[in-house]
Amino acid sequence: MKKTIAVIGSSRRNGNTGKLLDFISRELDIEVVDLATKNISPFDYEHKNIDDDFLPLMDHLLKHENIIFASPVYWFAMSAQMKIFIDRMSDFLSVEELKDKGRELRNKVGYVVSTSISEEVDSSFLNSFIDTFEYLGIKYGGFVHLNCQNGFDITEAEKDINSLVTKVNLANNVQVI
Ligand SMILES: Cc1cc2nc3c(=O)[nH]c(=O)nc-3n(C[C@H](O)[C@H](O)[C@H](O)COP(=O)(O)O)c2cc1C
Known about the structure:
The chain is an alpha/beta fold. The protein has seven helices and five strands, in the order E-H-E-H-E-H-H-H-E-H-E-H.
């Protein structure tokens, strides 16, 4: 079992974010889970959706140490697909029987991969991940952002990609005691 896995939430699997993540995941030789293939509904205070694909997906993700979250910037924020997924983390806080599983997120390492048509990733976008990681006890490992304003050109983020790949590879080789 690999120590790293990626999850993508975009309105198109093979768009800019998908292509960027595919490049990174090929370098790391890791699995990519597309949220579009999962039936995950928005947070429900009554948890009537507890049997959808959220918990099985989390069981799978929790078998890994590093989790890459990939999303395009849509209106200064993460995609709706990713937001619905992140909102469901609240199941771990509000369902008594799931609290222990939620605690398994502690000490996982979270990375962010994004694309937009802006040079810099919006702080509102990135901070929503970083703050969520912190709240859940996930360590923040870093991010890669690719500006696709002039089309998809991976070389624009080459340095950041290499540094994230190196970081994750190093993390993969560290023995967990
Ligand atoms: C609904 C929507 C909202 C967007 N909002 C922003 C934005 O706030 N800032 C930005 O720089 N680009 C924005 N964009 C551009 C996308 O971030 C950019 O094209 C991205 O690479 C698309 O990734 P995708 O192919 O995975 O969807 C938006 C695009 C869409 C479709």
